[in-house]
Amino acid sequence: MSRKIRTEAVDSLFDAVLSLKSREECYTFFEDVCTINELLSLSQRFEVAKMLRDQKTYLEIAEKTGASTATISRVNRSLNYGNDGYDMVFERLQAGAEESES
After folding, report:
1. Which SUPFAM superfamilies does its entry note (predicted)?
2. Is the whole model's pTM more than 0.85, yes or no?
3. pLDDT at residue 86 tops 80
């Protein structure tokens, strides 16, 4: 993990996020913390990551999400060479979905 982002302020932000208990609480908090465009950008990157994991092409992703090829490439680089944060979350979401199905 990059030492540049490891600060007390970032720790405090992450602690705040970890205290949220529902999707509605997330909406309430993130609408206060982020601009609408920042939140939409974050959600767009997450959607791009899901589509890249599903082997969608850059063209398919760009058409569905409106993401630029630069954004898609940046997310792809994170998936391939990052800290595996996306994979960790996707695995947990998949496990949660499988639990709710059984």
Report:
1. TrpR-like
2. yes
3. yes
